Amino acid sequence: MNFRKVLFAVVLCSLFLIVSACGKKETEVSLLNVLEINPGENLVLELGSSVTFTVVGRDQRGRVITVTPDWSLEGGIGTLEVDSGDSAVFNATEAGTVYVIARAGSIFTKVEIEVVDKKVEIIKISPAKANLITGGTIRLSAEGRDADNNIININPVWSLDRNIGILDKEKGGEVVFTALSTGTCTVMAEYSGFRESVIINVLDLPEGELAKVSGYVTNGRGGPAVQGVNITDGFYFTCTNEEGYFSMPIPAGEEHDLLLSRPGYANVLVQDLVLGAGEEINLELPIRKVFHPGYSLKTPLISVFNIDTGQELKRGEVLSGLANLEVSIESEDNYIHVYYVYLGGEQRYPVAAHNKNDSGMVLSIDTGLYPPGKTYLRILAYDNNGNASLYIIPVLIERASKPVPEKIEYLELYSYTFGQNLEYYSLGREQLYKKLNISGDPAVIELSTGRQLELRAAPQGAALFTELHWKAVSEADGYKVYRSFDGKNFDLISYIDKSKTYLEDFSPELGVGKTVYYRIVPYNSSGDGEYTERAITPLPAISVFLVSPANQARDVSLSPTFKWRINSSSLFPPEAVTISNLSIYDGTAYSLGNYEIVDKEEYTLDVILEPGNVYSWDIVDTKAFMVYYDDIDGLSYSYSFAGYEKSLNSGSGSINGEFIFTTTTKID
To answer: What is the distance between the alpha carbons of residues 380 and 285, in angstroms, rounded to a whole number?
Structure first.
């Protein structure tokens, strides 16, 4: 045989074998259709335990195929040891959630593992039972307990046995049930082989004459809305929506205690509430995160004694002249932290009286400072764990008449937005004052102008409220304050006695870019005077981020241009003004100067720095303001401050500063 022919045959055969092998390998890979991991169900492991996983591959016909997958972890807790090609061992080293993943080519499978400190032995659902009306909602929360009755956070599977409502999963062990039609259903929570259930009755509106309770629940007075707060009168339930709003009917003429609760928060009680048929009351209810989880959640109990009559104050009782009342507050397990007394209003300030660290007080109220007619006496009390009670009792003011007062001549409106959420009544604020070595009332901050402001919470990531100041009217016994968001429909929000000419409005209905209108009406026993009206629009919250020279930058110009970014500045009205204070220091913390920059986010230094030196820079204070109105009749100013520490004379500073840089050694 010719040598060339033999060589050609050998090469041809080799190529055929290679192609066949490649084709065979491609065929085998294409046969893999699914990976099965065992155990494949979601697992709950105790800390320190381990589990072995194996993987089986199957083709489209379900036949077993030997595979060698790549093993990995998603979640960052625990370790994974690969024993052999188709198995691996997971070791639980930290509490949390992790996923074990096996992958072969583009096909993969995974299993979820929840690592807990101790094993769940039982599941509890709160509340244990509930009655709703059609359209009502309730938040259900499930928690695990170990053998020692310690709480374990769980993420159960929720289910419903009848379609008279829907379940809306929130997070963790919580779910919201919304009632769609009348009937009875069972809501179940299942976790790690354990199951617990709660029966929910969805009823028609109660028979008989009804009243209505509605309102907003916020984190601290005027703070961000708190969703999922359950409100119950002991029979019916409802819960707040994402705006913190709730509404529920109650039988008229009966005494009700409304209890507000949510895991992680202290309890709030609206005590001894009685409404007439068709009457509606709208409440602004603050709820605080619990100060200590081990402290009691029992709310204080409030009572009022009329010293003049020698009896408990009665509903609808007539108050005239100088009313002498004794307020008593009792708490079984916690001491009383602070309480506030209002007549005819629920504004934060001014108040008829308030007291700290005491459980009783005698106060004398000059009813001549308030308008005649029906009104409410309100008392809000907190204990040291944040539990609160709101006591509301209707009273009737009677007094002699006099000439109608004249119109208010001068009205000032101020809107304040701080770029940080401040929890109202926060015990932690006292610690902050100590840390900053600042003395005084920890509920008050002082602006650089010398004016004082009350601290409180507001929209998420910010604090937002308005202030009203007006010129007194000599004939007035007091002032009525009305609020509107459309300039047409006004709601009465407060009565202010004649000794005060200011109001702080912390309403959760206030919002950035949402114009609010106020009317101030002077009154006396003969009636109301003419109103004075003014509007204002709150500015967005701002925060500052340093850009360049970047932190640890080198070879920086001897006359650098400093650049920073003010978040939300693009949302300001064109007429708004921003002012940033730039501070520069050398390596010894010696100040090289403070520069005020208006309506810009950069500044080129007008002095020459030393070559090869270390410097630092920061925007230590930023604010924006907007003048809406300013003339002989009054003014409307809106302010927005980055953070709030500047008001404590420590500098609010940038979010990511201060930056350190080194100048260049090259000199032109």
So the answer is: 10
**Do 527 and 520 form a contact (C-beta atoms < 8 A)?**
no
Per-residue pLDDT band at 424 (split at 50, 70, 90): very low
- Give me the amino acid identity at 484: S
More confident residue, 651 or 206: 206
Q: Quick one: which H or E segment has residue 14?
A: helix 3-31
Smallest CA-to-CA distance from 389 within 304, 504, 457, 313 is with: 304
Return contacts of 603-610, CB within 8 angstroms, 24+ apart.
Answer: 603/561, 603/562, 604/559, 604/560, 604/561, 604/562, 605/559, 605/560, 605/561, 605/562, 606/559, 607/559, 608/558, 608/559, 609/558, 609/559, 609/560, 609/663, 610/558, 610/586, 610/663
CB 585 within 8 A of CB 615: yes
Tokens 């309102």 belong to: 215
pLDDT digits (tens, 9 = 90+) for 545-592: 899 999 999 999 999 999 999 988 788 889 999 999 999 988 776 788
Res. 198: pLDDT tops 50: yes
Distances, alpha carbon 351 to alpha carbons 340, 345, 440, 503, 626, in Å: 7, 9, 20, 10, 30
User: pLDDT tens for residues 291-320?
Assistant: 888 889 999 999 999 999 999 999 999 998
Q: Count the helix, strand and coil residues of the chain and give each as a percent rounded to the nearest 5.
A: 5, 50, 40
| CA pair distance 459, 510, nearest whole angstrom | 9
Amino acid 5 reads K
Q: Tell me whether the omega of the peptide bond preceding residue 39 falls within 30 degrees of 0, making it cis.
A: yes
Q: Token pair of 447, please?
A: 């602006």
Q: What whole-number distance in Å separates Cα of residue 228 and Cα of residue 170?
A: 9
Cα(520)–Cα(75) distance, integer angstroms: 58
Mean pLDDT over 22-32 rounds to: 48
For 203-343, where are the alpha helices, taking DSSP H only?
none
Are the beta carbons of 417 and 640 closer than 8 angstroms?
yes
Cβ contact 166:158 at 8 Å: no
Query: Is the Cα torsion angle 297, 258, 220, 468 positive or negative in sign?
Result: negative
Long-range contacts of 74-83 (CB under 8 A, 24+ apart): 74/98, 74/99, 74/101, 74/110, 75/99, 77/115, 78/113, 78/115, 83/52
The 10 Å CB-count burial string (b at 16+, else e) for 522-551 is bbbbeeebeebbbebbbbbbbbbebebbee
Q: What is the pLDDT of residues 465-498, one digit of tens each?
A: 899 999 999 889 899 999 999 999 999 999 998 8
- Residue 542 half-sphere exposure, CB side, CA atoms within 13 Å? 31
Who has greater pLDDT, 367 or 62? Answer: 367
State the pLDDT at residue 246.
94
Q: Are strands 322-330 and 360-366 parallel, antiparallel or unpaired?
A: antiparallel
Question: What pLDDT score was predicted for residue 651?
Answer: 39
Q: What are phi and psi of 531, to 5 degrees?
A: -85, 155
The total number of residues written for the chain in this structure: 668
Q: Which residue has the tokens 């209002």?
A: 342
159 with 187: CB under 8 angstroms?
A: yes
User: Range with the lowest mean pLDDT among 227-241, 410-424, 522-536?
Assistant: 410-424
Q: What integer pLDDT is reported at residue 245 of this predicted model? A: 92
Q: List the end-to-end C-alpha distance of the chain, in Å, as a whole number.
A: 85
Look up residue 576 and give its DSSP letter.
Answer: -
Tokens of 333: 């397990």
Tokens coding 287: 């709820």
Q: 478-484 and 491-497 as β-strands: parallel, antiparallel, unpaired?
A: antiparallel
Which of helix, strand or coil describes residue 642? coil
Closest by CA position to 555, among listed 612, 615, 616, 602:
612
Rg of the chain, C-alpha, whole Å = 34
Residue whose entry in the numeric block shows the structure tokens 């080198």: 554
Give the span between the Cα atoms of 7 and 15, in whole angstroms.
Answer: 12
